């Protein structure tokens, strides 16, 4: 499947669905969980924390587990599917997740996609095109937004398609922030077609500071992420109450991160440019009151 432009979307009535991330790799979504959690009622906060714990565990296996990571991910999937078959889980994180699955009606495939993203990370370290990277995001980040919609009982095909746009944007931003770290880990999430277009080599990614060509490339990818984020923000108008506040928190985190990246001169190599709390709150207020950050 290809996803070259964020405006390629169905009306949600047919079998097709926009397939485009994030976090959140899971990571993209996880970065912004605190924004959503602080003011939420106990029940959705508890569910989001359970989802975060699961996403973090799967991500840590994919990034840090010492041993056969794919085999370990297979074990987690088997135990997860066991929950749906009525078998108790031995993993504490999955035991904590079980009440959320039941209360929110979360289908197994959404959670399994996060596992699959980490399987992909074990065998794919480069992406030739943006479409390929966006397809990866259907596994690594888009499920996070879908899970949030389930938590608030607002899951529809149209909302999921819009959420996918936001999550893809968040994943792109996170990749831009972590270019140096990812490169040290042997991964490059900048599409090869864009590296070639801007004349950026992989050696440039290992430098202490970004050269002009890399800065231009990062600015280009940031502009692309901003377009995906804007294309998904109509989702907010379909939500109300705490659901809208939570999703607005994710979008605000993305906008603030883009602002921090711009403030760094689009040079993430010395260290990931991070948005301050004030920047996130400011972006949230602008989104809430209808002014574009």
From TrEMBL:
Signal peptide: none
Entry-linked Gene3D superfamilies: Farnesyl Diphosphate Synthase
Pfam families the record matches: SQS_PSY (PF00494)
Any one Gene Ontology molecular-function term assigned to this protein's record: geranylgeranyl diphosphate synthase activity
Entry-linked SUPFAM superfamilies: Terpenoid synthases
GO term, biological process aspect, one: terpenoid biosynthetic process
InterPro entries: HSQ_synthase_HpnC, Isoprenoid_synthase_dom_sf, Squ/phyt_synthse, Trans_IPPS_bact-type, Trans_IPPS_HH
NCBIfam families tied to this protein: HpnC
Protein name: Phytoene synthase
